[in-house]
Structures are given as C-alpha cells and as structure tokens.
Write the structure tokens for this entry.
Amino acid sequence: MKKPCKKWFALTALAGISLCLSGVHMADASEVIYDDSNVSISSAVDRYIATNDNAVANIVDGYEAKEATDDKVATIEDESASVSSQNPSGAIEEIKAPETATGSVKVSNVTGEISVVDNTTEAENHTTEATTESTTEATTQSTTAATTTESATSYDNTSTDGFVYTLAEPDFTGRAVVKATGTVNIRESGDINASRVGDIAGGGIVKVEEKGSEWTKISSNGITGYMKNDYLLFDSDAASYAASNLKKVVCINTASLRVRAAANENSETLTLVTSGNAYGIEEIGAGWTKIHVDDSISGYVRNDYIILDYTGPVAHVVTDAPVNTGNTGNTTTESTGTTESTGITTPPSTNIGQDIVNYALQFVGNPYVYGGTSLTNGADCSGFVMRIYADFGYSIPRTADVQGTVGTEVSLSALAPGDLVFYDNGTGSIKHVAMYIGNGQVVHASSSTTGIIISNTNYKPPCKAVRIIN
C-alpha cells in the first residue's frame, strides 16, 4: 500500500486525536473563515500548516498511521453548515492548543465552514460581560458582586442574558442586632454606672468591636461604646430576628451604578446610585432588582452589582449622659420606651445646626408616610425636615420644591450640619430633600420601604443646597 502523504497523514492524525482530547482551546486564537466553499480539505490543512508554523505537524509528532477503512474523500460543499460538540456535523473546527499542551480537532461528515475556534468559556464570557458592564451599568470598575455559600438561602435569578446571579442572605459575622421595644443605652465602659455616650433603638444593627461575657463593645453611626449582652443578638439569632422583624434593602457593590427605567441595559438611565447606601426593594427579578432610590424615583439595577442587607435604627449621641446610681441589679433600666417627641431633648450648644442634627437623628428608623409630618408615626421627605425645623422655631414651606427656594443657597462643597440638600433626578425640578448631618452624610425620610435613614450625600446626584439657619 502506498505510504500516505504528509498532508493526509496530518489530517488523519488530527481526527484521531479528537477521540481522546476535547475542548482544549487556546485563548486569543483568531477565527479564520474561508470564503471559497469549494476549497478541499487537503488545501485547508496546507493553509493551516503554512500559517501556523507547522502547528499540526507538532501536534501529531510520534503518531503511528493506521490503514484507512474508508476511501471516501470529504469535500466542503456548504459553507453555512456548522458543528457542535454534542452532535458534530457539517464543519471542521481546528482548535489550537496552548504552547505547553496538545490540541484537538472535531471532524464528522466534513462539509461546510473551516474555522479556528477561540477558547472562550462560559466563565470567561461572564467575566467579559462584567468588565464591559463596569463602564456602562457600573460607571467605575468594581469588585465582583455578592458571593454565596451552600448554606445561604438565596434567590435564583436567571437573567435574559443567560447568566445566573445569586443574591445571598445578609451575613451577620461581626455584627449584632439590638433586641428591645424601646431604646438601649450605650455606655462609656462595661459598667451600669458608666456615663452614657449614646443610645440606639431596638432593631438597630451594630458592629461588634469586642464581644465580652456580659458587655460587648459596639459601634454604630460613629459612636463607640459598651452595651449589655442581654440586649444583643449574635450570629444565627441575629439573622433569624432580622428576617422576621427588619426591612430588607439593597446595598450597591460598586462605586456607582445606573438605575434603569426597565430591566435591560438598553433602557433609559434614571439616575446613579452609589456604594455605602441602602435602597428599598420593590421586586427581586431575573437578573435585575427594582429598587426605591427614595420617594421620588424607582428603577432597576443589575443583580450582579448588589448585595442584600437589612436596615434599622442607628445610634445617636446622648449629651446629658447622667450616671445611673440606682437599680444596678435591674438590667431593664438600660432599655426605655419611645414616645412622640415634641421638642428639643438635648441641651443647647453654640452650634444650632448641630443641635438640629442631633435632634433629627433620634428619629432614624421611624416610618415613611406620604403626606405625613409625624416624626415617630410617619413623615415624608419634606414633612420630616419641616417638622424638625418647626421644633426649633423655624417655619419653612411644606413641599420640597418650595423649600428649595427659601434660605440662602450654599455650595455643595461647603455644606454644614443642618443644611438642606435637594435632588432633582436630572429633571431640573426638585423631587426630594434631605438634611446634611456632616461627614458627607444626610438624614432623610427616604421611602416606604426604608423609612427615615442615613445615607451618603451623593446616594444619588444632588442638585443644590440651602441654609435655613441665619
């Protein structure tokens, strides 16, 4: 029998290797398409060898030829035909191997298009999508979205682009939940007689700085102190309590993220939201979640750029801080009930703006009610700031758009505690108002899903600020 030529030897070897090697691709391989549908298989191999430094010969080095069992010569008849890894037919795909590995060829009833296939896996496709999206949905590059564990209860979100984004339940590692019907004292040290440095209402989530057997060092809203363990829930107990009693919110896992009018990347951008803020949840969907940015705007954000958490009251400063000299054995004195407040509860200082802020912070965690002006039973954004200022003797208009026309306009770069910050959602017309509290943060009656909360000043782009205090 006549010895086969080198060209046919190479092709036969490539077909044999495909039986034991599959899916070994080479990243960055370019796709080669032959326009001539009548090109022969041997010509295709010649061209591949010539353009790839005899790569085929290198792959088949040491291969022993076997007698052919079929003398049919395959030809390319239809360049529109294709091949799949499941039921290969209609095309030959030549896949280059990494420099330190071998390659493989898929051959079956060879007719159609010849191409060199790039090694783009599903995982790499996902990475490419995330990278591209970081310049469109996420306006700056960020870390990956929330991770999950097998034990986490999660939402299965298969988006229209085919990827699955899993939102893990909030993690309470290093955190605790305050369990009380009223407020709980935060003390300077782990002693019932120590001075108070602040307090926090039941349902607040605090950071655990150092856990003790009776007292735990915690921090919240910039206040650090000690709280009795009787009023704290940890780990799984905290998670169970939060799931039953607290409001679930969305936190942004990238510097800045687009909020869309619909759950797709081609829809209108309504506004931008930023990390370090909590946004109310309206609906968790397939790849996208609809959020309440505040009472003036709702929209969709991609699930791979968000994580789930809970919202609740935060600590605020107690400036009268008396020493508790009685009932040292009764731990219930650390927790007190909450009633509607109608006036200033802290001593005056030389900074009236800070006094107003300290007063306003007492109502964080209370509900949002459209049209309301009650600091405990519910207020909307403008009703909240109007009522706070009214309790200090200032009369300001009822609605946010009119509130933006009074006082003295100040630069957003020169904000002081007590200043009002306004948001227009890019429309040029004021839609929401918040009160600046310092350190780049505002307090506001945000939405029905979050209530009165603290946010970063740029939780969405502000448009102006005014100072009410003369």
In short: The mean pLDDT is 73. The first helix runs from residue 6 to 17. The first strand starts at residue 92 and ends at 95. DSSP finds eight helices and 29 strands in the chain.
